Amino acid sequence: MSNRVKAADVARLAGVSRTAVSFVLNGRAEGNISAATADRVRAAAAELGYTPDRVAQSLRLQRTNVIGLLTDGIASSPFAGRILSGAMDRAAESGFVLVVADTQGHADREVEAVEEFSRRRIDGLLYASMKLREAVQPPTTSLPLVLANCSGADPHAFVVPDNANGGKGAARHLLELGHRRIVMLGGPGDPAGEQRSGAFRAVLAHARLPGAATCVIGIGRMWSIDVGYQWTVRTFTDSRGHLRSAATRPTAVFAVNDRVATGALLALGQLGLRVPHDVSVVGFDDQEQLAAHVVPALTTFALPFRQMGEMAADRLVAAISTREPVRLAMRLPCPLVVRESTGPPPSSDSPVVGGSEIAAHR
């Protein structure tokens, strides 16, 4: 004979109907059950050690309370892996278990994973990319679907970082410090780089700086410390390898990510230039175990990986609960993290631009 505590036992101890117990323990008490009665039911359930029968709930609600997360690599990345931890924690708060399939970018594994998820009758699917991707072809599925760190060609809901606003923020930060000769390392060839550099250019164009004073240098898709080092040396030296004069070289560098910015810091030090006294450096990502620990600590823009996971899970849970498709596009801000690598330009440079020149891009 089973000793399992049942909803009827909770109802008897609380002095209420089984329907009332169901309303309270399934989160539907508001508007149906008084607060005092709901408290009494919860107390009775706690006293008896009652736990819901998940199998019975699944049959009744036609849900398994399981969400699948399909990814091309974030599970093996401590950086982008914050998408995973954010989604997992937020799903758990809503009573869902998150099951992860990491395909390492293999299309055949992706198809197999979706088929397996479908056989297991999961309630919905998150699709998360390690690098920002545009117009991806999401998996073919009838399940509720939300994309994280990528946007689809089809009108699926997606959550991505607002890279363009971050690019604007980098330009504004350096202009407000008084910089006029600014170079960006990175741009075309990658969606994130294009978004950051396009907005960066727009703010500088609005500030009406001389064309030769600012530029965006395309460094390809390899955003590494080595590449940042090499391009910084090229930018700050002439054809003979000599350091350019203080009157002609940039006073600020905006790097497309923190690894490129770290390479810039190393190169500038090798060239005998002090950061931020001679040159300011701004990165992008706020990469763990790097941005806050290089010398000087890096001013950068933080990618909201954890928040992307949380918001994507929230949107998916809402779609599952309402049985309505979610097509909301969310672009999350990338906040500026000011540390020690930025400051005013050398005193011989021009004064700070008036606020009106920058205001239109706020």
TrEMBL record:
Keywords: DNA-binding, Repressor, Transcription, Transcription regulation. Residues 339-362 are annotated as: Disordered. Residues 5-61 form the HTH lacI-type domain. It comes from Kineosphaera limosa NBRC 100340. InterPro entries: HTH_LacI, LacI/GalR-like_sensor, Lambda_DNA-bd_dom_sf, Peripla_BP_I. One of its GO terms (molecular function) is DNA-binding transcription factor activity. SUPFAM superfamilies: lambda repressor-like DNA-binding domains (SSF47413), Periplasmic binding protein-like I (SSF53822). It comes from the Bacteria. This is Putative LacI family transcriptional regulator. Coiled coil: none annotated. SMART domains: HTH_LACI.
